[in-house]
Amino acid sequence: MPIRPENVHRYPPDWPQISLAIKERAGWRCECEGECGRGTHPGRCPNRHGAPAYGTGSTVCLTTAHLDHTPENVDPANLRAMCQGCHLHHDAGHHAVTRATTRARALADAGQLAVDVGPAATPVMPPTRPQTLHTIPAPATEQLLLDLPATEGTRT
């Protein structure tokens, strides 16, 4: 993911080398094992840098994600090589908080509303999608229809 200009100072000078080492550690394959919350694949994500992405076919761009969303924390245990899809889903809650804070500050600066946005709240991850859908079997549905009270002129 690109580093925003206002956050460059939060990354160590050797960030490109650290990020490269994490991607090499992963064998240039996404290391996400469900941390992102997408629920689109069992186990480790199959996406590899430069190859078509699982499910979408777009070209995979491997990135380095901070599990705690803190750029200063470059401990290898806090860093994961993630494809762009997993990284975006992993950061979704954090991005929502940042977006709301930025918008509130912009509105306050424009005199639209006085709000104390304070520090960003703890990110909330979006719910994961259900793995299976529950359906009512057709025979049960037919029986329910047969059990409905008859209205005049509809049953023979």
Provide a short characterization of the protein structure:
By secondary structure, the chain is mainly α. Helix content is 29%, strand content 5%. It folds into two domains: 5-90, no CATH class; 92-129, no CATH class.
Q: Could you describe the 3D structure shown?
A:
- There is one protein chain.
- The chain is mainly alpha-helical and 156 residues long.
- The protein has two domains: 5-90, no CATH class; 92-129, no CATH class.
- The chain is 29% helix and 5% strand.
- The protein contains four helices and two strands; from the N terminus they run αββααα.
- The chain has helices at residues 15-25, 84-90, 92-109, 138-147, and strands spanning 63-66, 79-82.
- A two-stranded antiparallel sheet has the order 1-2.
- The longest helix is centred in the middle third of the chain and has 18 residues, at 92-109.
- It is globular.
- Residues 130-138 have low confidence and may be disordered.
Order of helices and strands: HEEHHH
- Kindly state the number of beta strands: 2
Computed over alpha carbons, the radius of gyration is 24 Å
Give the helix level as a range of percent.
25-40%
Structural class: mainly alpha
- Which sheet architecture does the biggest sheet show? 2 strands, antiparallel
Protein name: HNH endonuclease
Organism: Streptomyces canus
